[in-house]
Write a structure and sequence with these properties.
Layout: H1 3-15, H2 18-25, H3 29-43, E1 48-51, E2 54-57, H4 59-84, E3 90-95, H5 97-102, H6 104-114, E4 119-124, H7 127-135, E5 141-144, E6 153-166, H8 181-184, E7 189-192, H9 197-208, E8 217-219, H10 222-230, E9 235-239, H11 240-248, E10 261-270, H12 277-287
Parallel strand pairs: 3-4, 3-5, 7-8, 7-9
Antiparallel strand pairs: 1-2, 5-10, 6-9, 6-10
Helix pairs in contact: 1-2, 1-3, 1-4, 2-3
Length: 294
């Protein structure tokens, strides 16, 4: 079996679809199907079950994936290591939405000043999807707002952030010295979408207090939530770095929590990942990023 077979299998596994895998690999669909068939015949196992237009990995396919991904990742890391010796090549960064909006642009600008010949590819999505890309080796480093749960992911805290209340400026609670989640829970709540880092922390905090909160509004747009709060539709809890400007401009008001909701922002990478000197430099830059951006 060849490295080509392994790359094709890994791509098919990720997509659970022969056609999409062929499109990503720029191969004819029959060539992809043949490579999977050759793998199955060579090892004498069934790697996928064909169900309509989709295919699902078998138990053997799931086990095979961990080996195939490791082989493909090692080969890609070898190429990066050689290329990065003379500061050429590509570094692939993925970040959560909050970090991608407020931190990543400045990081990349500063990084490219030091490594002008290095190509930086960036992806912005929710933290869970960034974790999966790290596991699949489709990005090199991730910057997320949560603590990763997968045992194959290594995490390094690089910055602290906190969640804050936002209220309409004339809200009954806006004159309080501090607030609790229990007080906020009595009012209509607006929240980020499920799967976002801030939402996961907020849901966990409510669960610890045995509070059941059903939001009247869910949105992936922080600005939509801020605008709705400003119009008096409810209250929200969001990362401070996302709403600092709106608070300072007087669009909404914040009241401190009695027990602050702090969180670490983490750099993540696969624990088997070879960290090139350029990746190490990016990690160092994250840790030393100017305080005014925090």
């Amino acid at each position: 079996m060849t490295l080509r077979h392994m790359k094709i299998f890994v791509t098919v596994y990720r997509h659970s679809n022969i056609t999409r895998a062929a499109e990503e690999l720029h191969l004819a669909q029959p060539s992809v199907s043949l490579a999977v068939k050759e793998l199955e015949e060579y090892y004498g196992i069934r790697l996928f079950e064909r169900i309509g237009r989709r295919i699902c990995p078998t138990e053997a396919g799931n086990e095979f994936y961990s080996y195939a991904l490791h082989i493909v990742s090692l080969f890609e890391d070898i190429e990066k290591k050689i290329k990065n010796w003379d500061t050429l090549g590509t570094i692939r960064i993925g970040t959560s939405i909050t970090i991608g909006t407020h931190i990543l642009p400045g990081l990349i600008k500063k990084y490219q000043e030091a490594y002008p010949s290095l190509r930086v590819e960036a992806m912005v999505n929710n933290s869970g999807i960034i974790e999966q890309h790290v596991l699949d080796n489709t990005i090199d480093l991730g910057l997320i707002e949560t603590q990763p749960e997968h045992p194959e992911i290594q995490a390094i805290p690089f910055m602290k952030d906190h969640l804050c209340t936002i209220l309409p400026t004339d809200h009954p609670l806006s004159s309080q010295r501090w607030l609790t989640l229990s007080q906020l829970a009595r009012y209509p709540f607006l929240m980020r979408e499920k799967g976002s880092a801030g939402r996961e922390i907020l849901d966990a905090s409510f669960a610890l207090l045995h509070l059941s909160v059903h939001p009247i509004w869910e949105s992936s747009s922080t600005q939509a939530i801020v605008s709705a709060v400003a119009q008096g539709l409810g209250v929200a809890v969001l990362p401070y770095m996302l709403v600092e400007k709106d608070i300072l401009e007087g669009q909404v008001k914040t009241v401190p929590f009695r027990q602050p909701l702090h969180r670490d922002l983490n750099i993540i990478y696969h624990k088997s990942k070879y960290l090139t000197p350029n990746m190490e430099a990016f990690i160092h830059l994250c840790k030393e990023f100017p305080m005014e951006t925090r």
